[in-house]
Amino acid sequence: MRLISLKAESDVHEFLISKNFWAAVHRNVPERLAALARLAAERPDVFAFESSQKIAERCKVSQTSVVRFAQHLGFDGFAEMKQGFQHGLRQSARRAS
């Protein structure tokens, strides 16, 4: 069961870097994925630039859990979610400058 289908949102990339969004996700995510939600809220750059294996090691979960986390959010897999984080951070940086 997916928490939310982010693909359906027009500003999907804004959600991925929003601490408020991640606070809501953390309240509703299965316990085994909670560490991933915390890391995504605190360090979106990690999800944008690190491998799924490195993220799994940081959160002490399996690499499969990282992929499931992406799918839980409505993405096809980790690569698609990673692109979303990258785009969100680029948009945020453009607005800040």
Major β-sheet, in short?
A: none
Shape verdict: globular
What's the Cα radius of gyration?
12 Å
For the record, give the distance between the C-alpha atoms at the N and C termini, rounded to a whole number.
39 Å
Detail the poorly predicted runs: 1-10
Can you write the helix and strand succession as a string?
HHHHHHH
**Structural class, from helix and strand content?**
mainly alpha
Beta fraction of the residues?
Answer: under 5%
The average pLDDT value, as a whole number, equals: 80
The number of distinct helices, counting runs of at least 4 residues, comes to: 7
Count the E strands: 0
- The helical percent reads 55-70%
Furnish the topology, listing elements before pairings.
Blueprint: H1 12-16, H2 19-28, H3 34-42, H4 44-49, H5 52-59, H6 63-72, H7 78-96
Helix pairs in contact: 2-3, 5-6
How does this model look, in words?
The protein contains seven helices and no strands. The termini are far apart. With 97 residues, it is mainly α. It has helices spanning 12-16, 19-28, 34-42, 44-49, 52-59, 63-72, 78-96. The chain is 69% helix and 0% strand. Helix 2 (19-28) packs antiparallel against helix 3 (34-42) and helix 5 packs across helix 6 (63-72).
